[in-house]
Amino acid sequence: MKLALIGFGQAGGKVVDQFLTYDDAIDGGFVESAVAVNTATTDLRGLESVPQKNRVLIGQARVNGHGVGADNELGGEVTEADIDEIQHAIDRVPTHEIDAFLVVAGMGGGTGSGGAPVLARHLRRIYTQPVYGLGVLPATDEGGIYTLNAARSFRTFVREVDNLLVFDNDAWRSAGESVGGGYDRINREIVERFGLLFAAGEVGHDDHVAESVVDSSEIINTLSGGGVSTVGYASETVETDSGGLLDSLTGSADSGLEDGAATNRLTSLVRKATLGRLTLPCDAGSADRGLVVATGQPTQLSRKGVERGRQWLEDETGSMEIRGGDYPRTSADEVGAVVLLSGVTDVPRIDQLQQVALEAQETTEQVQATAQDEFASLVDTGGELDALF
Ligand SMILES: Nc1nc2c(ncn2[C@@H]2O[C@H](COP(=O)(O)OP(=O)(O)OP(=O)(O)O)[C@@H](O)[C@H]2O)c(=O)[nH]1
């Protein structure tokens, strides 16, 4: 599917930069345009692939290019104030050619976490295409302010987008590694999973096995139930010496065996993708909708395997809305399965964030109530005080 990518804040910009590189590398064709928005000049300067003219600095009047320092209320305010500057850059996007917008942001900082929901609301008011979010959750050891920002922003971001795709940094850092040390690796994991999914909807219908190729409308329909989504991916390297003279000589018995192996391989890849590490770990059974995409050499893409995987996911989720199809890639030496689980509800990390948001709200209310009590008692004693002077 064709996307207009908008990276908000430092993490958002870097992930969008990486999406551009990946799209080029796999010849995916899913990025129509890429824009980066930030309050910090240095973050915009550090980008490599987003075109200079599509880098938008906002909030200059308030923070003078120095960032908002993890203050996400300020991030939201400067976005509201400078929304026309962002719109100006989006005006250059050929929006009639895109299937959707994707707003990418780290939820723990100030600019992306505060600004991304404001931009999503703006885009949904103006355009008819769906507006998706890709939210990156902070690692748990990053500190309270990051968790609190994420807890607050998450609720707003889910409300303002048509579907929120989530990646949890915490689940993806390696043992003993600080999350910052592994951003490059983590960002590659992000773009591979979501990139393969979006590129899948971009295959022309004259390509191999055209009738079973995933269409962008299938991705859109899978995401149209709203809520929160997560993606799983599993792959295997395969020998690709098929299609030569040998094949035509070995006859149908061997090719029957190969078909069986390809079917079994794909069925287990779908299970591995679903039950392995998801971009946002959750109980896959709680998904409302799903999409299974088989990717790799056209000869390895067993339609029966995809169908079995799809049926298995139907049983796992109890959902009747599980779609399936292929993304043939002639240059790939791996066969893989991407599984999109949409509208997931049993997500421990989100429960934890909601708890944090609730506690923060209670603390704020307590502080306000104590301040009101103190003020009231000061007013009560006002007469006595007056008498003293
Ligand atoms: N996956 C990933 N996460 C990142 C990256 N850079 C920062 N983060 C995460 O994003 C959160 C911080 O958000 P940033 O995007 O740096 O902050 P910002 O939106 O630019 O906001 P301010 O810096 O406060 O103005 C933290 O939770 C980081 O772990 C990155 O390149 N990849």
Automatic annotation (TrEMBL):
<keyword id="KW-0133">Cell shape</keyword>
<dbReference type="InterPro" id="IPR017975">
    <property type="entry name" value="Tubulin_CS"/>
</dbReference>
<dbReference type="InterPro" id="IPR032907">
    <property type="entry name" value="CetZ"/>
</dbReference>
<feature type="binding site">
    <location>
        <position position="142"/>
    </location>
    <ligand>
        <name>GTP</name>
    </ligand>
</feature>
<dbReference type="GO" id="GO:0032153">
    <property type="term" value="C:cell division site"/>
</dbReference>
<feature type="binding site">
    <location>
        <position position="187"/>
    </location>
    <ligand>
        <name>GTP</name>
    </ligand>
</feature>
<dbReference type="GO" id="GO:0007017">
    <property type="term" value="P:microtubule-based process"/>
</dbReference>
<keyword id="KW-0963">Cytoplasm</keyword>
<protein>
    <recommendedName>
        <fullName>Tubulin-like protein CetZ</fullName>
    </recommendedName>
</protein>
<dbReference type="Pfam" id="PF00091">
    <property type="entry name" value="Tubulin"/>
</dbReference>
<keyword id="KW-0342">GTP-binding</keyword>
<comment type="function">
    <text>Involved in cell shape control.</text>
</comment>
<feature type="domain" description="Tubulin/FtsZ GTPase">
    <location>
        <begin position="2"/>
        <end position="225"/>
    </location>
</feature>
<dbReference type="InterPro" id="IPR003008">
    <property type="entry name" value="Tubulin_FtsZ_GTPase"/>
</dbReference>
<dbReference type="GO" id="GO:0003924">
    <property type="term" value="F:GTPase activity"/>
</dbReference>
<dbReference type="InterPro" id="IPR036525">
    <property type="entry name" value="Tubulin/FtsZ_GTPase_sf"/>
</dbReference>
<dbReference type="Pfam" id="PF21011">
    <property type="entry name" value="CetZ_C"/>
</dbReference>
<feature type="binding site">
    <location>
        <begin position="110"/>
        <end position="112"/>
    </location>
    <ligand>
        <name>GTP</name>
    </ligand>
</feature>
<comment type="similarity">
    <text>Belongs to the CetZ family.</text>
</comment>
<dbReference type="GO" id="GO:0005737">
    <property type="term" value="C:cytoplasm"/>
</dbReference>
<dbReference type="InterPro" id="IPR037103">
    <property type="entry name" value="Tubulin/FtsZ-like_C"/>
</dbReference>
<dbReference type="InterPro" id="IPR045061">
    <property type="entry name" value="FtsZ/CetZ"/>
</dbReference>
<feature type="binding site">
    <location>
        <position position="169"/>
    </location>
    <ligand>
        <name>GTP</name>
    </ligand>
</feature>
<dbReference type="GO" id="GO:0051301">
    <property type="term" value="P:cell division"/>
</dbReference>
<dbReference type="GO" id="GO:0008360">
    <property type="term" value="P:regulation of cell shape"/>
</dbReference>
<keyword id="KW-0547">Nucleotide-binding</keyword>
<dbReference type="GO" id="GO:0005525">
    <property type="term" value="F:GTP binding"/>
</dbReference>
<feature type="binding site">
    <location>
        <begin position="10"/>
        <end position="14"/>
    </location>
    <ligand>
        <name>GTP</name>
    </ligand>
</feature>
<dbReference type="GO" id="GO:0005874">
    <property type="term" value="C:microtubule"/>
</dbReference>
<dbReference type="InterPro" id="IPR048737">
    <property type="entry name" value="CetZ_C"/>
</dbReference>
